[in-house]
Amino acid sequence: MIIKPAIKNNICVRVHPIGCRENVKRQIDYVKTKGSFKGPKNILIIGGSSGYGLASRVTLGFGCNANTINVSFEIEPKRNKTGTAGWWNNIYFQQFAKEEGLKYKDFIGDAFSFEMKQQVIDYIKREYGKIDLLVYSLASNRRTDPVTGETYISSLKSIGKTVDGYSIDINKECLKYEKMEEATPEEIQNTIKVMGGEDWDLWVEALMKEDLLEEGFKTVSYTYLGSPATYDIYHEGTIGKAKNHLEETARALNTTLKEKYNGQALISASKAIVTKASIYIPIFPVYGAILYKLMKEAGTHEGEIEQKYRLFKDMVYGEEPIIDEVGRYRPDNLEQDEALQEKVKEILNKIDNDNLHELSDIKGFVDDFMKINGFNFDTVDYEQDVDMETLNEVELY
Ligand code: NAI
Predict the structure, then answer these.
(1) FRET pair for 32, CA 20 to 30 Å: which of 123, 141, 251, 305?
(2) Pocket of ligand 1 (CB under 6 A)
(3) CA separation (Å) from 377 to 14, 18, 293, 382?
(4) What are the DSSP calls for 244-311, one per residue?
């Protein structure tokens, strides 16, 4: 089949397998060019099929020769449906890892469930005995509590007020007016239930109970802090509350891990980038497109792989950590530059559909969106017939 992009409500409902391969390959090439470093050996990544989780997997797999286990939620291709980008990213990660002689394993399913935790635990016991790093990089809009069976839906809403602004229409490459509604107390609690630290804690607890953590074990999860320009929609909104819970979880985990394994639980704040998850956040894409322009002009722009390479090589396993006053690791430091943020704020106040292309990097932003779905790579022939069945014959191991 010939696969062309189809975008509905800012969701790419088709992905291109060969382009996904290119996305994974470019990240691997980046890590290889930058060089290897000493790090963990056996790693579990929750949410390692795309965005920051995939970049973490590539960095640690190809940067440290680490064995990686990934748990992600994917849709398999079927008939004329192309599946999720994460499905293909996993397949191609495996192919490249195999060529490199790395060990890998993918579990496809619900990381929130006890069944998935058990499967992963059985595998670690069998194959490795212990792990030395857990990366928790899950982004989801729903979670079924494995204890009660109740399903919670998260909301991307503001707290205490409604927020007006623009978002980006990816299809038309233009601004669209958007209103972020005020969350109810229940919506705030539900968002914490989904995107807070409860499930991260359950993973560490389950691994600990089975004695699967190595001496010096570390675990890291990701937050976004942003700047005053995004506080209303993120840091002080429902998702920000969930991230506060994630940070509280990190503090509690850190105490336990330090005591038992001389280990560490970390929170790292990452830069705003285009991912399957971040594109849903109202108003965030406009901020992102402006940020892209200014950071590219300043020569400080980074994507997911640059961010994660710097986090693990320089900070978590290196000698140059950037740590803030509450102990977060801060590879988002370049986004936080005060003069840059002043300029972002200034542009946000005057951006409209007439000056959008001049004042923001909407082209680059949309291009990144296309690329995470396997499109817009100049090295891929998009007129070429793609034999999905043959490509998908690769059994995910
Ligand atoms: P993403 O959408 O690219 O990746 C999410 C991952 O979670 C995927 O691998 C997906 O398969 C997996 N997942 C979702 N539901 C699952 C489930 N029930 N079971 C198993 N796996 C599941 O998202 P992104 O943006 O990379 O987010 C990862 C983390 O990074 C999140 O904590 C997010 O808040 C954080 N972050 C993202 C930023 C951004 O600009 N994208 C900025 C700062 C932090």
Answers:
(1) 123
(2) 47-53, 71-74, 86, 110-112, 137-140, 222-224, 270, 272-273, 275-278
(3) 15, 9, 20, 9
(4) HHHHHHHHHHHHHHHHHHS-EEEEEE------TTGGGSTTHHHHHHHHHHHHHHHT----HHHHHHII
Mean pLDDT of the chain: 95
Does 11 score more than 80 pLDDT?
yes
**Cβ atoms within 10 A of the Cβ of 29, count?**
14
Q: What does the pLDDT look like over 131-144, one tens digit per residue?
A: 999 999 999 999 99
pLDDT digits (tens, 9 = 90+) for 330-353: 999 999 999 999 999 999 999 999
Nearest CA to ligand 1 atom 28: 137
Which atom of ligand 1 has the smallest separation from the CA of 195? Answer: 32
CB atoms closer than 10 angstroms to residue 302: 18
Decide: pTM greater than 0.85.
Answer: yes
CA distance 39 to 295: 29
Query: Which of 49, 74, 143, 275 best tests ligand 1's pocket when mutated (most atoms within 8 Å of CB)?
Result: 275
Q: Among all chains, which residue has been given the structure tokens 């980008």?
A: 85
The active-site residue, picked from 234, 292, 309, 317, is 234
Q: Is the pLDDT of residue 165 over 90?
A: no
Q: 142: which strand partners?
A: 153
Q: Identify the residue whose C-alpha is closest to ligand 1 atom 21.
A: 72
Return the SS3 of 155: coil
Q: What would you report as the CA-atom Rg of the chain, rounded to the nearest whole angstrom?
A: 20
